[in-house]
Amino acid sequence: MGEQGSDGGRKTAKTTKRSPVKEKPTAGAGGAGEDKGAPAKKAPAGPAKATAARKTSPEKKTSPEKKTPAGKKAAAGKKTAPAAKKTAPAGKKAPAKKTAPVRKAPTAKKPLVAPKKATASVRAAPAKTVVGPAGDESRTALVRRARRINRELAEVFPYAHPELDFENPFQLVVATVLSAQTTDLRVNQTTPALFAKYPTPEDLAAANPEEVEEILRPTGFFRAKTRSVMGLSKALVEDFGGEVPGRLEDLVKLPGVGRKTAFVVLGNAFGRPGITVDTHFQRLVRRWRWTGETDPDKIEAAVGALFPKSDWTDLSHHVIWHGRRICHARKPACGACPIAPLCPAYGEGETDPEKAKKLLKYEKGGLPGQRLKPPQAYLDAGGRPAPPLGAG
Ligand code: SF4
Which residue stretches, if any, does this entry annotate as coiled coil (predicted)? Predict the structure, then answer.
């Protein structure tokens, strides 16, 4: 799907055997650079609101265990925080008993509650929950942080969806193949003409290649893509009765279809959980230190182990949407990032809130999205449809 549609390195390898069309290569993977900045001073702006509001979640109790990018200072803070909790109640407890002996019971309970409030307020400050750069995070802490990031992103992108326009599995698999080496926007601007002329696998399989090439020209690599989509259409007609199969093992046999494309189709056309490891996904999970793997299949397995299977498809959307709008490859908008407190790579990009806001894309930047026909939830959230090809 879009950049998402590019199947990264994985697909590239497989595609090479079947078709010249390769899913997108793993573009500049922004490495998870050490955070040298002081996130504490740069509370995320804009989208970060959601983050601040959420700090009451239970996970917070574990987050503070991380070091701040600043280094030891964070480690120190971590240790002192819990200590403060313990001492605070004790300190308040005594005076309460002295001044209000009649309310002994309620007073005694207050100190037990107070620490929690104090904790919440402390953790509400993003700077204090920033994870450290070192690989000293326990497995449990990693799982909690990863899931918290996903929850935070779900609040930031509650309308996240596949960004390729499609009305059925056939359109989705074709659109995903076409998205290699180009954006979902360009694919969405191209496929209306393609599907209007060739609405079924049978139609596309029997098409004049030169006519298909002309339609697909705007997507780039149009000759190879023509061979792929016509090839997969023929395979669908000959091997699957003209229907897109709903099994991974069948999908990856289709020309131009790798695991990434297959999971896009399974997750979004068949409702079967799948992780889409595209270039954005690879870049972000490395920045977040969810895994040190570089092979897409291994990334898929490593990240999949951090989440319930039922979360996989939405997780993919959240990560990819964040990568497209905020955590860009070359210049991530750290200063406007809602998950900055949870990111070891904070500071890899622009940390000035105002400058960071200008880096936001699509609806987060007040711009049109990639789909010409986006879901209603996206429109309700203020998102705008993409313009058709040639418009504006
Ligand atoms: S934009 Fe956010 S997720 Fe990306 S590197 Fe910066 S702080 Fe981390």
Answer: none
CATH number at 213 reads 1.10.340.30
Determine phi and psi for 274, rounding to 5 degrees: -160, 150
Please indicate, yes or no, whether residues 219 and 365 belong to a single structural domain of this protein: yes
pLDDT tens digits, residue range 355-373? 999 999 999 999 999 999 9
Rg for the chain, CA atoms, rounded: 24
Instruction: Indicate if 207 and 83 belong to the same structural domain.
Output: no
Which of 35, 282, 286, 287 has most ligand 1 atoms within 8 Å of CB, for mutation? 287
Rounded to whole angstroms, how far apart are CA atoms 262 and 28?
A: 23
Instruction: Please write the tens of the pLDDT for every residue from 135-186.
Output: 689 999 999 999 999 999 999 999 999 999 999 999 999 999 999 999 999 9
Which of 103, 138, 173 is at the close of a domain? 138
Q: Please tell me the total count of domains within the chain.
A: 2
Domain range for 280 is 2-31+161-325+361-380
Separation between Cα atoms, residue 298 and residue 302, nearest integer Å: 6
Say whether 260 is catalytic.
yes
In a domain, 205, yes or no: yes
Residue 340 CA to ligand 1 center (angstroms) comes to 6
Residue 343 lies in a domain: no
Question: Residue ranges for the binding site?
Answer: 327, 334, 337, 343
Residues 207 and 306 in one domain: yes
Residue 295 reports pLDDT greater than 70:
yes
Q: How far apart are CA 24 and CA 98, in angstroms?
A: 70
Let me know the angle formed at the C-alpha of 237 by 233 and 243, rounded to the nearest 5 degrees. 85
First to last CA, the chain: 23
Alpha carbon distance 171, 232 (integer Å): 12
Same domain, 233 and 371: yes
**Does 278 qualify as catalytic in the annotation?**
yes
- The pocket around ligand 1, CB under 6 angstroms, is made up of 287, 326-327, 332-334, 337, 339-340, 343, 345-346, 348-349
